[in-house]
């Protein structure tokens, strides 16, 4: 993992942020994606 800073055009608000890598079926089965890829919850 490598930390990065992302500048958004609008606030995240009440949305969850997901790791798109966890959309892959093989990655989804790993411990890294055990939470479904959720990286932030409001």
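-> sequence recovered:
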């Amino acid at each position: 993992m490598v930390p990065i800073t992302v500048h958004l055009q609008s606030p995240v608000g009440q949305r969850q942020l997901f790791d798109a890598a966890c959309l892959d079926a093989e990655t989804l089965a790993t411990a890294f994606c055990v939470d479904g890829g959720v990286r932030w919850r409001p």
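The chain has one domain: 11-42.
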